[in-house]
Amino acid sequence: MENILQQIGIENYIYLSTLLFCVGIFGVLYRRNAIVMFMSIEIMLNAVNLLLVAFSTYHQDATGQVFVFFSMAVAAAEVAVGLAILVAVYRNLNNIDIDNLKNLKG
Amino acid sequence: MDTNLALLLLFAPFAGFLLNVFFGKKLGKGASGTLGTLAVATSFVVTLTFFLQVINTGKPVMVDLFEWLTLANFNVNFGFQLDQLSLLWLMFVTGIGTLIHVYSISYMHDDENMHKFFAYLNLFIFFMITLVIGSNLLIMFIGWEGVGLCSYLLIGFWYKNQDYNDAAKKAFIMNRIGDLGFLIGIFIIGYLFHSLDYTTIATALSSGAEVDATWLSIAALCLFIGACGKSAQLPLYTWLPDAMAGPTPVSALIHAATMVTAGIFMVTRMNFLFNLTPDVQTVIAVVGAITSLIAAAIGLVQNDIKKVLAYSTVSQLGLMFLALGLGAYEIAVFHVITHAFFKACLFLGSGSVIHALHGEQDMRNMGGLKGVMKITYITFLISTLAISGLPPFSGFFSKDEILMTAFHQNKVLWVIGSLASIMTAFYMFRLLYLTFYKDFRGTEEQKHHLHESPGLITFPLIVLAILALVGGVISLPGNSWLNHYLAPVLAKPAHHHELDGTAYMLMGIAVVGALIGIGVAYSKYIKQSAVPAQDSEITGFAKVLYNKFYVDEIYTAIIVNPIYAIGSFFRDVTEAAFSGFIFGLGKVANMLGSEGKTLQTGSIGFYLFAFVLGICSIVVYIFLAK
Amino acid sequence: MDISFVLIILLFGAAASYFVGDKWASKAALIFSTAAFAATAYLTYKYTGGASVSYIKTWVENPMIILGFQADSLSLTMLLLTTALTPIIILATFRNSINNSRTFYALILFMAFAMAGTFVSVDGFVYYIFWELSLIPIYFISLLWGNGDWESRKKAVVKFFIYTFAGSLFMLVAFIYLYQKGGNFLNTTLYRAILTDKEQFFIFLAFFLAYAIKIPIIPFHTWQANVYQKSPTAGTMLLSGIMLKMAIYSIIRWQLPIAPKPATEYMYVFVGLGIAGVIYGSILALKQTDIKKLLAYSSLAHVGLIAAGAYTLTLDGIRGAFLQMLAHGFVVVGLFYAAEIISRRYATGEISEMGGIRVQTPKFASMFMILVLASVAMPLTFNFIGEFELLYSMAQTHIWFAVIAGTTIILGAFYMLKMFQQVMLGEQNAKPFADVTFGEAFVFIAIIAVLIFFGIYPKPITEFITPELERLVRIINRFN
């Protein structure tokens, strides 16, 4: 029995995740709102996860899927820390526009 | 037994030095002086026993103590060689040394640091003995530097006076220039022969070992430079006249009789080496002759009694080097000995005069001392006659031998030497007349205090004057005990002059020359009662002579001042440049930092943009550049 | 008991001096440093009896680092120098009132510990750690207890720290590179490492930068005079007496055996640099008006000569360098102590304000004179032995080297006697000058006794070090 993933063909997964990744990059580059940037980063992360899962199935090797679990767990932790920072920033500055965060200017 | 005696010979003065340094002040002046004198007298007695032993057996006494320096190719031992030459030298070093110690007991009695004076004198004798009895060049070098040190300490004995300290420092540094030459010579000899022992080198040379002649000459020349420094030859002689700043017994012992003859000792010691380097011998002869002439010329016009004697010493040393250069080592040694007698006597006599005049040294303020200071006058007269080269005084024989040798080998050198001798006769009698004849020219107070010196001062004078009178017997023309005695230590047989017509003619010329010099002095200073002009009135060539050809000024201008100028340049320019370069490196880093920090705009968007751009360029580089 | 015991004593002594408090710190430091000296002497005795007193243990497996303290005649001699000078230096500080003295003495002992470690380590990595470790205490000693105003002192000391530290980093790079070749840092391994000419050249240069700055060889010397002047005298003594010997010792122990080819090929350059330092330092010393600066430049001249001798690659030169290191260590400590005594009593370092001291204290004048004479290499002092071998080795290499380097005996006499005359001689000084105390005289007498004993009878030392040096010289000249 053929898996649905195998029917579609690996190249399509690559195209999709590349697209998702680029969406993430442009989101990070063009948006000024920290929350949106954060979401864009998540999209990039998930693009990579998608690719990992796709290749894992393609190669019939479970390692990639294990790896995705790891990266999801790390992403969850990252979100927790990151959002906490953003909340702290919002309390101090009353907005979360990254153009205001220039205190580390050299 | 010999070893213990040799150690006693060496360490008696050293013990005297230590005792005087640590206990001299407590012992009191008389005891301290006696102690110092006894120490040297002990050495003299030991020397005498060795001397008689060597005359009887003819065999040198060798003592080897322990290994001192270890080098890759050879070792240097603490070893002593008591042979004919070193014992002869020790005889007059310790002998005259003892006399001068006796003299100093009285002469230095008013000085608060008398115990130090005797300590230094004893130390000097210790180093002089080391210099003479060493069995290799490096032991000689110990003594060589050591006597230089004592000379420094004694010239600057009255250390509160900075002029004296300058003179002491100058003597030390001038000597060190020569010492460097000596050291380089030692290096070359060590490299060539793999040994510094006299006997080993002599054997190697006489067995005809393959030795590079050029290097041998360079080594000989370097050794001679060392001798120039110590024995005050051109161009390193200027320290000796300044060294007269020291107490007069020091001038007599160190700067006339013993230390300054170390150069002659060294060349004689290494005669087997110098015999093989005729070019260097020529250099030695020419330097010696010119030195004797120039120093005599300067001596003609000096007015300080000790300065005249100092230049006369330089001049006589020049004559000795002339003899060495002509290969007549035994004649040079002969002149060293007679010179030690009469010059020590002259210096001590001048000290006696200075003592009587309470420190006055200018001859223009003396005169008429003949009547008050009879013993000083008579001994001084005998020595003056000896240095002028009149028979039968000792100086006549030695000086005549030198001139005769010069006559047979090179007429020009003979003329120069004879001229120097005539000048010597003139300035010595000038000194004698100005000091002892006519009327006293000093102050009334000085005149009131004029007196003959006490017995401790006159006794050495008498002994030395007798030696100056009869010293010539050790090497009479035609029948020389000295030549025979020294034969074992000289590589070539001694020069032997037949007592033929030429010899008598030369003697006659020398005597007539001396009489001319004396006559000129007589007519000027006795007949015309002339007194040398005051400093400001000296003009013309006499002024050049009086200022010693401005040699000191020239040295200052071309050596000392440039060194200081280079020092200023180093301090102000190169140090600042080096330092600036290092600080410059720091500044560059600092500047890069302050430029680089502007890249950190703080804009997160910019950072992210740079981040993505960087990733892209890495991707492009890895996947597409191939 | 092995050689690590000495290091432990010193380290423990540093801690002990700190914890006994300000009042007893100096005594504790003196006791522990003397104990270290006694232990070293005992170990040396055992070593000459044929026993092995080395300590070798693996420290880290990967990378392979060995905690190795090798006792051979060279390292033992240097250890003896370090542990002999440390109590002398501590004794020399006794008359000073020192703030926070427990830290001061702890730092001195810690410094001795680091320097001793540098001399005995056989593993390049451990050696490097000790080498850099010694920089930390001297930095604080000079900065916190130094002379002069804070700003200029800070500038001089920080410059010194960064300069020597930066130079040493090149050495670290060289060691890491050598590790790739050899598989461990042991010097015996590194001697055998097969290197191309180009590799040798760069490794030699990296070592040279580290050592040339530390010694210092011109033109890397600009930190020296200022730091010597600004440091407290104990710091100056540590720097000039022992620390710069670390670099010369390292040339003989590390640089030359590991990369001898460039040293052979460019021998004239390195010997020439050393000799240039002799002339340069001597002439600059003539122009100094501050007594400590004058001694600093004279030290520059002397170590230039030592370095030049080591770079001749001959047995005579290297042995001369070794002997002169010991002699110079003692004489320079003595001279700086004399300078300290004078400037403490007159409260100035300016030579022009001194003079006439000999009238006031003849004893001190005599001892100072002997040190001056030793410094100008008078025969029968230890310095003459070293200087003679050094100059002789240069004469073997090229006669002009010996002639030019030999001017040190003239120029040295010139500036030292000039200084002595201006400082000590002349009419009595108006300012009072207390006679030397027993403790002060003891320091001088100890130093003078060492200098004169080995000047007359250097055979114990030469016999002790020569076999090891011969082995090293064979390794150094393995390509010829």
TrEMBL record, chain C:
<dbReference type="InterPro" id="IPR003918">
    <property type="entry name" value="NADH_UbQ_OxRdtase"/>
</dbReference>
<feature type="transmembrane region" description="Helical">
    <location>
        <begin position="364"/>
        <end position="385"/>
    </location>
</feature>
<feature type="transmembrane region" description="Helical">
    <location>
        <begin position="200"/>
        <end position="222"/>
    </location>
</feature>
<feature type="transmembrane region" description="Helical">
    <location>
        <begin position="128"/>
        <end position="148"/>
    </location>
</feature>
<feature type="transmembrane region" description="Helical">
    <location>
        <begin position="234"/>
        <end position="254"/>
    </location>
</feature>
<feature type="transmembrane region" description="Helical">
    <location>
        <begin position="6"/>
        <end position="21"/>
    </location>
</feature>
<keyword id="KW-0812">Transmembrane</keyword>
<feature type="transmembrane region" description="Helical">
    <location>
        <begin position="438"/>
        <end position="457"/>
    </location>
</feature>
<feature type="domain" description="NADH:quinone oxidoreductase/Mrp antiporter transmembrane">
    <location>
        <begin position="125"/>
        <end position="408"/>
    </location>
</feature>
<comment type="similarity">
    <text>Belongs to the complex I subunit 4 family.</text>
</comment>
<dbReference type="InterPro" id="IPR001750">
    <property type="entry name" value="ND/Mrp_TM"/>
</dbReference>
<feature type="transmembrane region" description="Helical">
    <location>
        <begin position="28"/>
        <end position="45"/>
    </location>
</feature>
<dbReference type="Pfam" id="PF00361">
    <property type="entry name" value="Proton_antipo_M"/>
</dbReference>
<feature type="transmembrane region" description="Helical">
    <location>
        <begin position="294"/>
        <end position="315"/>
    </location>
</feature>
<feature type="transmembrane region" description="Helical">
    <location>
        <begin position="321"/>
        <end position="343"/>
    </location>
</feature>
<keyword id="KW-0472">Membrane</keyword>
<feature type="transmembrane region" description="Helical">
    <location>
        <begin position="65"/>
        <end position="92"/>
    </location>
</feature>
<protein>
    <submittedName>
        <fullName>NuoM family protein</fullName>
    </submittedName>
</protein>
<dbReference type="InterPro" id="IPR010227">
    <property type="entry name" value="NADH_Q_OxRdtase_chainM/4"/>
</dbReference>
<feature type="transmembrane region" description="Helical">
    <location>
        <begin position="397"/>
        <end position="417"/>
    </location>
</feature>
<keyword id="KW-1133">Transmembrane helix</keyword>
<feature type="transmembrane region" description="Helical">
    <location>
        <begin position="104"/>
        <end position="122"/>
    </location>
</feature>
<feature type="transmembrane region" description="Helical">
    <location>
        <begin position="266"/>
        <end position="287"/>
    </location>
</feature>
<feature type="transmembrane region" description="Helical">
    <location>
        <begin position="160"/>
        <end position="180"/>
    </location>
</feature>
